[in-house]
């Protein structure tokens, strides 16, 4: 075109005088700093599978007790403040295990890195007008999935799991007696199947039994308690499901005789409603700032409660067994009413948000208590040695809060997650007793860590995980709206 009309191209060019004209600019040019530091973003994803359908934070996760590959997660449907709650079911069995690779694999530039499997939703949990805050499958068979929301609703679905062909979910009903539900825990008693307890922001505690065959009243209230004067922050059943222990921001601990088993043995507190009653009025038990976590000994001998300022209190529990004790002429239920403060521990510097207890299968067995703190540390106590400090891992999750702790059942292996977005596993038989940062974690028993969430406390922490009984796969719920599947 220019070859046919050269005069047109020439006319479009600037005149020589115009080209030489200097255009003044009052603004000074900003020189580029060649030495400026460039922020390097390194992404590491150790997962074998992921579920990324949620649009916002996942606050809750629950694993089916019979089919551990069936996972429920819940949170918020969108970033807006008034967004409804949302939840999903997915199956991790679709995630392929990765073979053990030779050492040369990682250094082979031609090798294709292993891919993470995208998981699909099997079912969506709806009906909440605010975030789903907690989830639980009922025991012993996982017949029902129960969700609790910041809208105060408890919603229930019946689950018909069909191995090899998915799961059929049917909404059974809902109840709304409170403004916000903080936690839900399934009762493990074989005599009281499909029963759950919940704790609310107004301090109340409710126990329901679910009976889908009663269409007119599928969610039946068994008990309700109103002794806490501030939010009920955590609760746990004894291993036999006979007693329920709850704690509150008002620094109180109550152990409830839900089924009347303690009353039948003449064990009751002065209030006539609980079997153990400890509040901040007792200076030995007072925790200024409240209690936020609880764990029960696998033998049902004690409850550990954790709270503000790094405080941990150990309280004996009633023994309701009628087996003979070593005291001639007395049964164990005669001698152990519970309620004694066995220990007051204060090793960590900030609130204890998570507790876990393990009875190891070693000979002799050892009872371990692990406490996770907002200061990023994990402290492990040896209950068989009067709760002496066995290990204080002061930099377990660097400066970020430890969100959850859980032992692999009957082992020395402890799994932790935090707001740094990392999941770690510790072997408490090995390593040194203390540590100051993540760099020395191997010396403190760190055997494995998994990364993939955004982390750094900026909306990318791990808010929960499940790991089954054997701990061979860990599934997470992330503040970044992603669930990841990690394999040991």
From TrEMBL:
SMART domains: WD40 (SM00320). Keywords: Repeat, WD repeat. WD repeats lie at residues 125-158, 225-258, 395-436. Pfam families: WD40 (PF00400). Coiled coil: none annotated. PROSITE patterns: WD_REPEATS_1 (PS00678), WD_REPEATS_2 (PS50082), WD_REPEATS_REGION (PS50294). SUPFAM superfamilies: WD40 repeat-like. This is Ribosome biogenesis protein Sqt1. It comes from Pochonia chlamydosporia 170.
């Amino acid at each position: 075109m220019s070859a046919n009309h050269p005069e047109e191209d020439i006319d479009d060019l600037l005149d020589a005088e115009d080209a030489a004209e200097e255009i003044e600019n009052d603004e000074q040019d900003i020189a580029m700093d060649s030495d400026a530091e460039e922020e390097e973003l390194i992404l590491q994803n150790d997962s074998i599978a992921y579920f990324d359908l949620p649009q916002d934070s996942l606050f809750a996760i629950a694993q089916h007790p019979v089919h551990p590959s069936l996972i429920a997660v819940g949170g918020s449907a969108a970033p807006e403040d008034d967004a409804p709650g949302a939840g999903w079911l997915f199956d991790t069995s679709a995630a392929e295990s990765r073979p053990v690779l030779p050492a040369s694999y990682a250094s082979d530039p031609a090798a294709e890195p292993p891919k993470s499997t995208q998981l699909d939703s099997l079912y969506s949990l709806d009906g909440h007008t605010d975030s789903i805050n907690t989830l639980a499958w009922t025991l012993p068979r996982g017949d029902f999935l129960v969700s609790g929301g910041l809208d105060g609703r408890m919603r229930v679905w019946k689950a018909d799991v069909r191995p090899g062909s998915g799961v059929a979910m049917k909404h059974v009903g809902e109840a709304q007696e409170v403004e916000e539900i903080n936690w839900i825990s399934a009762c493990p008693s074989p005599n009281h199947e499909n029963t759950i307890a919940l704790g609310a922001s107004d301090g109340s505690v409710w126990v329901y039994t679910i009976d889908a065959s009663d269409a007119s009243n599928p969610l039946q209230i068994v008990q309700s308690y109103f002794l806490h004067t501030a939010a009920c922050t955590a609760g746990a059943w004894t291993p036999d499901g006979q007693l329920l222990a709850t704690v509150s921001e008002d620094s109180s601990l109550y152990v409830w005789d839900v089924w009347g088993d303690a009353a039948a043995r003449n064990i009751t507190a002065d209030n006539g409603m609980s079997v153990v009653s400890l509040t901040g009025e007792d200076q030995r038990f007072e925790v200024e700032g409240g209690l936020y976590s609880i764990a029960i000994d696998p033998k049902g001998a004690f409850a550990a409660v954790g709270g503000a300022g790094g405080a941990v209190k150990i309280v004996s529990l009633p023994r309701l067994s009628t087996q003979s004790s070593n005291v001639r002429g007395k049964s164990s239920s005669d001698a152990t009413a519970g309620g004694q403060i066995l220990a007051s521990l204060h090793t960590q510097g900030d609130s204890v948000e998570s507790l876990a207890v393990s009875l190891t299968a070693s000979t002799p067995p050892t009872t371990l208590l692990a406490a996770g703190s907002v200061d990023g540390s994990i402290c492990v106590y040896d209950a068989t040695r009067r709760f002496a400090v066995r290990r204080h891992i002061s930099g377990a999750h660097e400066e970020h809060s430890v969100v959850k702790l859980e032992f692999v059942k009957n082992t020395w292996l402890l799994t932790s997650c935090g707001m740094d977005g990392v999941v770690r596993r510790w072997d408490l038989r090995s390593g040194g007793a203390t540590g100051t940062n993540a760099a020395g974690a191997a010396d403190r028993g760190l055997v494995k860590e998994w990364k993939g969430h955004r982390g750094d406390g900026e909306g990318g922490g791990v808010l929960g995980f499940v790991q089954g009984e054997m701990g061979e796969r860990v599934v997470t719920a992330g503040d970044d709206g992603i669930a990841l599947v990690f394999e040991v």
